[in-house]
């Protein structure tokens, strides 16, 4: 919820995924800051109108389309314009927000090609974007997972008191370390199965079968992690579209398809009523 009289003059996109950048058009007068790599990556993301078209065509009797409806169909993307960053940087940029210094640090490729984290030294806060997920198995589209671990180490090196993940509740350094342990274990298992010559689909199935962390939901993302890591291990150069990665994951983990689909609500109306 926005404070009633606040004027927002600067918006930072930690990465280009739609759930972190579609809101840019709601701030027409703001400077939108992100990494140069994120600006480039934005072109590979589905635009809001493409998401809307995709969802409008989804049929609930097809498992993957049902999955999309369950996760994205609750939002109404009509009226949102794809609004790219207006100011980009590489490596580091310091912004001044009133009397507060805000450091932007490029840590990608990790979750996506151009991830950045936001460090507010005076408050001991680091906003991690989707480098860190809490409560669910993480999904990482670009990788490699070693890049995610390096990015997490950069977060810890800033000695934060509070870490704001891209999804989930606020955490501290101890939870970042335990998240790194999980990501490291998944990476090591993928590497050993790859070394044994298992095709990526079989590796994904092994990960799903061996998953013991009942506290982490969205386990189908383990398949995405396998696809991402295999692309690096096999030195694949062609981009793997995000929707294809997700449809492969859903095919390999059919149990993730929900039986009921939530009611659609209007994101813009919802947002507007609270501003
Ligand atoms: Zn993301």
From TrEMBL:
Pfam families: Lactamase_B (PF00753). InterPro entries: Metallo-B-lactamas, NDM-1-like, RibonucZ/Hydroxyglut_hydro. SMART domains: Lactamase_B (SM00849). Signal peptide: none annotated. Residues 2-167 form the Metallo-beta-lactamase domain. This is Beta-lactamase.
């Amino acid at each position: 919820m926005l404070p009633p009289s606040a004027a927002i003059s600067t918006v930072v996109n930690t990465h280009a995924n739609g759930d972190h950048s579609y809101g840019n058009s709601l701030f027409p007068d703001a400077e939108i800051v992100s990494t140069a790599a994120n600006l480039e990556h934005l072109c590979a993301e589905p635009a809001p109108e493409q998401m809307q078209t995709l969802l409008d065509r989804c049929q609930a009797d097809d498992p993957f389309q049902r999955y999309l409806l369950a996760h994205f169909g609750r939002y109404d993307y009509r009226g949102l314009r794809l609004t790219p960053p207006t100011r980009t940087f590489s490596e580091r940029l310091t912004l001044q927000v009133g009397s507060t210094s805000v450091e932007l640090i490029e840590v990608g490729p990790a979750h996506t090609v151009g991830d950045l984290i936001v460090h507010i030294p005076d408050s001991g806060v680091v906003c991690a974007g989707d480098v860190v997920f809490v409560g669910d198995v993480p999904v990482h589209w670009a990788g490699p997972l070693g890049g995610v671990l390096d990015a997490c180490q950069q977060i810890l090196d800033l000695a934060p008191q509070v870490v704001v993940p891209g999804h989930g509740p606020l955490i501290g350094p101890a939870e970042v370390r335990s998240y790194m342990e999980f990501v490291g274990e998944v990476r090591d298992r993928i590497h050993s199965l790859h070394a044994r010559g298992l095709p990526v689909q079989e590796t994904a199935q092994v990960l799903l079968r061996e998953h013991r962390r009942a506290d982490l939901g969205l386990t189908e993302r383990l398949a995405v992690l396998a696809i991402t890591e295999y692309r690096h291990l096999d030195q694949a150069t062609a981009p793997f579209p995000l929707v294809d990665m997700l449809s492969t994951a859903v095919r390999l983990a059919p149990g993730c398809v929900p039986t009921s689909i939530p009611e659609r609500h209007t994101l813009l109306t919802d947002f507007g009523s609270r501003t």
